[in-house]
Design goal:
Distance between the termini of chain A: 38 Å
Low-confidence stretches of chain A: none
Shape of chain A: globular
Structural class of chain B: mainly alpha
Radius of gyration of chain B: 20 Å
Number of domains of chain B: 1
Oligomer: heterodimer
Mean pLDDT of chain A: 83
Number of helices of chain B: 12
Order of helices and strands of chain A: HHHHHHEHHHHEHHHHHH
Shape of chain B: globular
Radius of gyration of chain A: 21 Å
Helix content of chain B: over 70%
Strand content of chain B: under 5%
Number of strands of chain A: 2
Largest sheet of chain A: 2 strands, antiparallel
Number of helices of chain A: 16
Order of helices and strands of chain B: HHHHHEEHHHHHHH
Largest interface: A-B, 39 and 40 residues
Mean pLDDT of chain B: 83
Number of strands of chain B: 2
Distance between the termini of chain B: 47 Å
Amino acid sequence: MSKNTFLYSGLIILGLAGAFIFPAYKLQMSFLYILIVLAMTWDVQGGQMGYNTFGNILFFGVGMYVASSTQIAMFFSLAEWTDAGGEKTFVHTIPQFFQGFGVGILLAGIIPTIIAGVIGYGILGLRGHYFAICTLALGIAAGEIAGGIEIIGAGQGMTVPVWPKGFGTNASSSQFMYYLSFGLAVVTFITLKWAYSTRFGLVLNAIRDNEDKAEAMGIHTMRYKIIGWMVSAFFVGIAGGLMGHINGYIEPTEIAFAGPTFGVFMVLMAILGGKGTLWGPLVGAVLFHLFKEGFWTYFLGWQYVALGVLIIVIVVYFPEGLMGWLREKYPERFGEVIDEADRKAQVELK
Amino acid sequence: MDFLIFQAPMLMVQASMDGILLGILFALIAYGMALQWGVMNIINIAQGELVIMGGYIAYFMYLSGIHPAFGVIVSPIIMYFVGWGMYKLVINKVVDKDLFTSILATFGISILAQQLMNFAFGADVVVAQSNFGTTLLFDNTVTLPNAKIFSGAVCVISAIILVIYMRKSKLGRAIRATAQNARAAKILGVDTEKVYAATFGINAALCGIAGACIAITFTLHPYTGLPYTVRSFMIVIIAGLGNLPAVAISGMGLGIFEEWADYLLGTEFRIAAVFSLLVLILVYRRFKLSRKREYLK
């Protein structure tokens, strides 16, 4: 236990001090925390529940649009804002900015949660590959529809309110976002760690292992599936809202509903780290982010080739992920008891 | 907007004709997908990329001075080997794993293929001019490019050839046997590995034909593959595996739906309409099946 306390406090101190130790990498690290949230919430469906979704990107995009639109619409006309296209400037005052920001981020969590609850009943009834393809289509359809709606800037996208002048120093904007995204990652981790230790986590695993049997045992699987999706949607929506501010600009298909980038990243990160484990997605997100930044910086132009190859290699040769591999190697560290006689018998059978 | 259908009824006839010719193309792609889904239990997300790749072969012929219509002969031959290589490199390792693995692996292939095509042919929208002229119908109110009629005919002919091949030839019999029961086929001496490779190759060849038709009738762009995958998936789940007439009909239905959506909602919502329709169909199917399940209870 003491080892764990040491680990957790070490990570938290590292996260809190990170903004001062690596001031030049604040933006990168905020991205990392957002990616961690995405990977961990994907794992609620993909790893723990066995429902491989490509559609969590929907909540990401909705959260992003909701947060910024609310912040703008509370004080200005949204249509004028998106029409202006930089020619006319609207400036939030300091209290306006923070009021709008708070309400926006809150709504960015709530609205995707409601959407997940409403569409969940229809979509979570699908199984296997039908679910995967349906959610893939859902994310892309949302992006295409958002690209056709005038009031949120259509295909051009919209700008996000800028940090109010005269509040703090130049660096305080990125510092603010850094700590918010770090806080979000910590809250997500704690919530999921707690949720996995309760009956809820057990039910999710039961659904993954055999849904029909779980239903026969008297579990209302649909209810748990929807709640699981709503939890994911809440955190992903807030992550989207923060991401809009970190990025400073929202565009429907490349940033908000970015199926081919973020939508795939979250799946890949979880699988890379080991899906179905608490730490796997986190470790996977860190590794993936390092890989991605390295490639995007030094081999620009080849990054999607590398991404494609990486997906194939991970899925084909490394489907268990890092944590799965460690688990196989050191099962006792994961609290699993191995019956030596049984193991020997299995080896002989092979 | 809603009244466009009454203001210009001839436009809707035009849209329907376009839709049918487009739908035949979709049906051919979907038939390839049904084939590999039925035989290997694999959903190939890179299906659309195979189509676009086939199209670029025809475009490449056009660039080097050969008439692009010959692409419908050359491109399936090249694509057969592309599909065969793809099977040998990646797909044979995911055949016996769960479906999601194959979806994700082919998704990786699709990203890779998009980017490689982008390097090879550039990110411009291209079209191979066929100079086939147009046909005018109904007092010159409906225009049909001859290229579209040509491509529709090519698709129908190749589908018929394929059906006969699957019925009569030895390989066709082996493929059907493997689809029914891979293990039993193996026991009876069918080399399933070879059959899988051939199936994937035939699927890629079908995509090649469709792609060459798309090159002369529509436009090509490295990143427009995914809608073709989604359309063929949609057609397959409506029509079911291995039901060719149903595949043809639902392909045409989808083509008509798409052209109508294009006219009535506006072009910017065309792709959105396709993807939303898929979601609606799947959700409808889920409720239909769950009613059946309750009835059984």
